[in-house]
Amino acid sequence: MTPAILLMGPTASGKSAIALELSMLLPVEIVSVDSAQVYRGMDIGTAKPEVATRARVAHHLVDLIDPDQSYSAARFRADALAAMTEIRSRGRIPLLVGGTMLYFKALREGLSRLPQADARLRKELDVRAAAEGWPALHAELARVDPATAARLKTTDSQRIQRALEVYRISGTPLSALQGARESNDAPDFVAISLVPSDRAELHRRIAERFDAMLAAGLIEEVRALRQRYRLTTSMSSMRCVGYRQVWDVLEGAQARELRERGIVATRQLAKRQLTWLRSTHAQPLDCLAAGLPRKIAEIVDAHASRVSS
User: Fold this and answer.
1) Tens of pLDDT, residues 42-54
2) Please, what's the largest Cα pairwise distance for the chain?
3) Which of 126, 135, 141, 191 could cysteine-pair with 149, CB 3.0–4.6 Å?
């Protein structure tokens, strides 16, 4: 059986375009591995595929929830495995495409046995953070879970909150629980990582991409979302790169700094993605090279031949 394909890469590496070209070479359906594209109405800032594109090639795990709702790596893993089973039942190949590396890790390695989120406790921590500041909660985390605190910035509100939540619910530090993982029932994969041979060219693409988003109406999109939903900056949707910077402008920050801040934040995201890709077991391909869809199809065919022989 032809393996599922993982197409991983930093933002602006051309993953979506390559996936669409690959769909002309192999009978694939695309599964989004993007923690922002799950949100309805967040189209411009997530570079979500257009309706016509999604009609031509089936896309899964797009537009699942509203921006005021939450989505987790655990839910992604369950949804992705279900989508892959459906795709297989039609005799087609799952092509998982995106840049949310935590989701790829959850899919390939399974998940730590962590307690479920507690809305009441999270609200309590948010209230405390508003009064005391996240550095104060980080200091508390350092007392109960120094290993986790050491790898988190004092402003990393989402992860500080989760680590304190886990400790309060379980009585055990997050760092101690993360070693115990659920069984991995994921299927066979061919993993491809797209990495740039020229970092400057990736940076040029990032700037071009952010300029295109602004021209397409990113500010208006965020304004409309704020009017439609009861959103806050603590929500995962509004922490997404681009949306967070536009939010600040709508709250009074200097609009002339938006482009620079958005591009810098996107570069930082790409740097984190590339750091993760260097540590994973995947076949690296230069995302700036020509003929990548054909090359990937050849890699997939060769893997399938080895497995069946």
Assistant:
1) 999 999 999 999 9
2) 63
3) 141
